[in-house]
Amino acid sequence: AQTVTQSQPEMSVQEAETVTLSCTYDTSESDYYLFWYKQPPSRQMILVIRQEAYKQQNATENRFSVNFQKAAKSFSLKISDSQLGDAAMYFCAYRRSGGGSEKLVFGKGTKLTVNP
Amino acid sequence: ETGVTQTPRHLVMGMTNKKSLKCEQHLGHNAMYWYKQSAKKPLELMFVYSLEERVENNSVPSRFSPECPNSSHLFLHLHTLQPEDSALYLCASSQVKGWVGIDTQYFGPGTRLTVL
Description:
Largest sheet of chain B: 7 strands, mixed
Distance between the termini of chain B: 31 Å
Number of helices of chain B: 0
Oligomer: heterodimer
Largest sheet of chain A: 6 strands, mixed
């Protein structure tokens, strides 16, 4: 069974600084997708970024980028120029490939605090 | 705003009550999901509906009964719940495309359920 591990329950960063959130996963599949979701205090789960495992290039979305290391099964999220609005729980998620409604497997989350 | 709405946002019920959670998606998606988020636990997938047919049931107790009358609406009927069922219930939707493409799931804001 696939598992997702986020080893940092909490992280903090100064406003305008850079922070990296860690995520590792375990799978025997070769093709899959990885996601980072953000859950602010409003509890809405918001997609931050996604990565296809077959792509070697790391995904980027504005201030958010990932470091995808397939061999190491690592998928970290880097937030540059951190803003107060980035404060939230961040969840790493895995989904195996193939279409259909394959379920997302989530990590336990990392709570990010942004200090002014 | 992700295009997925949930009502009510908060619900308090006794163990003998019957209530329903509602989810509606305005994204034209054809798959919908119920997740349970408990404190300090990863999100757990409960049910998946694809093309209005239930395709996954993750060993959820029968006191939770899903209903998907059409591709835009999803309900979770609740009866004789236990206090340990108190949690945030999240609905999500995605577009299933057969065996290609990523069906990124978009989440609603959740219903905070408290069972007394």
